[in-house]
Amino acid sequence: MAITAIHPYLNFNGDCEEAFAHYAKVLGAKNTGIYRYGDAPPEPEGANSEPEGCGPMPPEFMDKVMNTELRVGELILMGSDCPPAFWKSGGENMTVSIQCDDPAEAERLFAGLMEGASTIQMPMGETFWARRFGMGIDRFGTPWMVNCNREG
User: Fold this and answer.
1) I need a surface site. Which of 26, 63, 110, 152 has the fewest CB within 10 A?
2) 60, 86, 111, 130 from 63: Cα distances, Å
């Protein structure tokens, strides 16, 4: 089976780093790293891997968390500071993140989940962190990310 994990993915309105430091302390978890929006390499001319409708990140957002994760045994809690164009309040700050080790399986999963989707925020494609990554909201309103890491 090519699916390797399904993880909760929490979105924050600028305080992800503080929240995850708190969660690490409370849960006795290890933070495996923080990647910031400013860490991303510049896009090649004409390319756009930003989520659709997101537009360029404001300069003050460059130090915000693009992705981080806590590990407690085999369990992983992931999170990021949500780009301003996507922030929603009132409990709508979670995404289901599927990790897999096969790019073809990532493509299949994303296509299936996004069949009839209301919004594809980032079409399946290669990124600087993943061989394949896609993000969208399915026709039932569930936000999904499908990720196939580079090292898999």
Assistant:
1) 26
2) 7, 17, 32, 21
